[in-house]
Amino acid sequence: SGIITSTFPTQDFSTPDLICNNYLVTVTNASSGAGIIAIWNYGDGSTLDTTNSPSHVYEAPPGVAATFDIEVFVVDSNNCVDSLTKTINVVAPKANFSIDTTIAHCPTLTVQIIDSSSSDVKDWFFNYGDNTAIYHDTVGLPPAHSYVSFGYFDMSLIVVNSVGCSDTLYIDSLVQITRPVGSFNYVALPNSCERN
Predict the structure, then answer these.
(1) b/e string for 40-66 if b means 16 or more Cβ within 10 A?
(2) pLDDT tens, 101-155?
């Protein structure tokens, strides 16, 4: 008589449990079984993937931490199925700031940065657009900055949180120091030298 040997696939995979926003995650498939096929559900609404050890980019709204369940279904050559789910946490700091004044007609213009980045930020890198920059690692207002020449100045902020994830905000021509422009009106008077 024939012998029926039962088979059952064994699922396993490795992936980071904490990643930065828009980070390319590589999943290492360690499942085993006869002629297995892996089917991946990334838990973020994207299309199912049948790559053996796939890569995937997770996105979360800036300033909001998100959690995704990644699940693998493994099917062997006898159509036996097993599955495994693991959780990936996506960390997404958000850079945001404003300044108290943006326009002047003459230097010097002193501005105060008002930071409104997400609460998980621990390092701030401000670039003032005039060949000066500052690193700031204390919650609260960074030092005021003075612009001493005419021009249009772009400002940017890079923030980093405690696990090394970053975000950047760039604002074009945020500070504008323009030269004053004069104007006048005149009224033509009758020619007083004209003979009667």
Answers:
(1) bbbbbeeeebeeeebebebebebbebe
(2) 999 999 999 999 999 999 999 999 999 999 999 998 887 778 899 999 999 999 9
pTM as predicted:
0.77
| CB atoms inside a 10 Å sphere around CB 97 | 19
Using alpha carbons only, what angle is made at residue 17 by residues 13 and 19, rounded to the nearest 5 degrees?
A: 120
Cα–Cα distance, 158 to 127 (Å, whole number): 9
DSSP 193: T
CB neighbour list of residue 154: distance below 8 Å, 6 or more residues apart: 129, 170, 171, 172, 173, 174
- The pair of structure tokens assigned to 93 is 């700091």
Name the DSSP letter for residue 141.
Answer: P
Could you tell me if residue 30 is left (phi over 0), alpha (psi between -120 and 50 degrees) or otherwise beta?
alpha
What tokens does 17 get? 């449990």
Residue 27 CB partners (closer than 8 Å, separation 6+): 13, 14, 15, 40, 53, 54, 55, 56, 70, 72
Joined together, the tokens standing for residue 186 give 């005149």
- Would you tell me how many other CB atoms lie within 10 Å of the CB of residue 115? 18
How many other CB atoms sit within 10 Å of the CB of residue 89? Answer: 15
Contact 166, 149 (CB under 8 A): no
